[in-house]
Amino acid sequence: MIRGPGLFSDIGKKARDLLTKDYSYDQKFTLSTFSEVGVGITSTAVKKGGISCGDIAVQYKHKSTIVDLKVDTESNILTTFTISEILPSTKAIVSFKLPDHNSGKLEVQYFHDHAGFSSIVGLNGSPTVDLTGTIGTQGFAIGVEAGFNTTSNAMTKYNAGLSLTKPELCASVILADKGDNFKVSYMHTFDKFNASSIVAELSRKFSTNENTITVGGAYKVDPLTTVKARLNNHGKLGALLQHELKPKSVLTLSGEFDTKSMDKTPRLGLALALKP
User: Fold this and answer.
1) Does this entry carry the keyword Membrane (predicted)?
2) Shortest CA distance to 15 belongs to which of 176, 263, 186?
């Protein structure tokens, strides 16, 4: 259903995913099963710094409706209803987390050939309202994002961005954190099979005069194995090896090292996701 420029959150997403997606420094095990009647069950166990936690998620799909139910080890219950095409080119998402009765949210997304809009409203007595708008095409988009607190009558966020997307490249400029953070990213793919890609990102925080430059890349060694790496100017080097054991079942090994302080213990992670 996604058409045109997409949503504001899509600006710079490809570059962000290449630099951050699948990097994990915990021990994580995920097991998923699916039935022919549209019910899927996913069990996740995570070990963080000697502390174990996890959750169980159940998903039910029926035509244009998806119901997600997730229960974690602290007895929090997150429920999400997603309804596509409730109106033409429109998606509605309702979510709430128990026992927090003030956590309810309603999100409405609208997709057009030359525009994308979304609105998120808190379902409580003093809701916050987030609005985003994007205009353009699948190749070029300009978008804005704003948040408003109805209790304090104050703006909670205002961001802007633009992106240029072609089959072989994706470039974006984002002004975020109420104008305090300026971020530029560029990603280039070298062949149509996405066997290798590189990315560079420059982020400047004006309030602290801090610049962060990150470069990274991904290379598909064979149809089942991918390696990724990233390095920033603060000396943080990350690497990742991902191997598909069988269709949809993936083993991921991650590591991060501080090249400016080699006496520090490196961060290591392992994730195993099994699907039928």
Assistant:
1) yes
2) 186
